[in-house]
Design brief:
The protein is α+β, with helices and mostly antiparallel strands. 31% of the residues lie in helices and 29% in strands. It contains eight helices and 15 strands. It has an eight-stranded mixed sheet with strand order 4-3-5-6-7-8-9-10, with helices on both faces. The longest helix has 18 residues.
Length: 262
C-alpha cells in the first residue's frame, strides 16, 4: 500500500471494522450518554467502539497521518494527510432504529477532501470515492460507478435535510423559500441524503451546524459523482457550518441564490 494513498479495499476494511461495532448495538437496548448539559446530543458505545476500531487500523497502516474524530478528538492534524472520522453520523436515527445513519471516513490531503466513504451496514450500502470516481458497492453485487442527476431546475428538484428546525433566523427563512420552490423536500435523512444526491436519486442536500467530521467524507462522494458542495457562502465545505450540495453547478447556484436571498 502507498504511504499516502488508500485504495477502496482499505477503505472497505475500515468500514467493516466499524460495522462490527455499530451493528452490535443497532436496534438493541443500549446505554446512551448525553454530551450536552442543556439539550440532547447523544453518544453511544457503538460510536466509541467504532471510532476506536478505525483509529487502531489507521495508526498501524498510516502512522504518519493525522486523525480527527468526533469521539476521540485530534492527533497530528498539522500533517499533510489527515483522516476525519464520524463513526455514526446520525446517532439520533441510530437510536431510533432508522437506517439513514452511516459511518463517515474521509481523507484530507493538504487541507482538501480527496477520498472518503459512507457505509450503511444495515442496508449493505457502501458509497466510496477513490480520488477519481464515486462507486456504490452493495452487498452481494458488483461495484458500480454512480453519478449525480443533471439538467434539473430547482422547481423540479428533490431536496433532503435532517430537520428545518436546525436552521435559525435568516437560514430558516431560506429553507422555507427552498421548500416553496422545489418539487419535494424530505426530512430526517442525515448523511444518507448526501448519498442519494451522489447516486442521482435526489438533487440537493442541505444541512446546518456541521463539524468537519460531519462533511469531509461527503465532499469527495459528491464531487467525484459530478456534483458541487460548498458552504452557504460559497467557500469550501471542509470546515463545516451550513453546507449545500447539488447534482450540478447550475442547480447549486440556483439553490444558493434562493437560500441566501435577503
Amino acid at each position: 500500500m502507498s504511504v499516502d494513498i488508500p485504495d477502496i479495499l482499505f477503505m472497505r476494511r475500515l468500514a467493516e471494522a466499524a460495522a462490527q461495532e455499530t451493528m452490535r448495538y443497532f436496534r438493541s437496548k443500549l446505554a446512551i450518554d448525553n454530551k450536552f448539559k442543556v439539550g440532547f446530543d447523544p453518544v453511544t458505545e457503538g460510536d466509541r467502539r467504532a471510532e476506536a476500531a478505525i483509529r487502531a487500523i489507521l495508526d498501524k497502516e498510516f502512522p504518519n497521518h493525522g486523525i480527527l474524530g468526533e469521539e476521540y478528538g485530534a492527533k497530528n492534524t498539522d500533517r499533510s494527510h489527515v483522516w476525519v472520522i464520524d463513526p455514526i453520523d446520525g446517532t439520533r436515527a441510530y437510536l431510533a432504529g432508522v437506517p439513514v445513519w452511516g459511518t463517515l471516513v474521509g481523507l484530507m490531503v493538504e487541507g482538501h477532501a480527496k477520498y472518503g466513504f459512507l457505509d450503511q451496514p444495515y442496508t449493505g450500502e457502501f458509497y466510496v470515492a477513490d480520488g477519481r470516481q464515486t462507486y456504490l458497492i452493495e452487498r452481494g453485487k458488483l461495484a458500480k460507478i454512480i453519478s449525480t442527476r443533471k439538467n434539473v431546475a430547482l422547481k423540479d428538484s428533490v431536496i433532503f435535510t435532517t430537520s428545518p428546525f436546525l436552521f435559525k433566523g435568516v437560514e430558516r427563512a431560506g429553507i422555507d423559500r427552498l421548500e416553496a420552490k422545489c418539487r419535494l423536500m424530505r426530512y430526517g435523512t442525515d448523511c444518507y441524503g448526501a448519498a442519494m444526491v451522489a447516486s442521482g436519486h435526489a438533487d440537493i442536500f442541505i444541512e446546518s451546524g456541521l463539524q468537519p467530521y460531519d462533511v469531509v467524507a461527503l465532499i469527495p462522494l459528491i464531487e467525484q459523482a459530478g456534483g458541487v458542495i460548498t458552504r452557504s457562502d460559497g467557500s469550501p465545505a471542509e470546515k463545516g457550518g451550513t453546507i449545500i450540495a447539488a447534482g450540478s453547478r447550475e442547480l447549486h447556484e440556483e439553490a444558493l441564490q434562493v437560500f441566501i436571498e435577503n
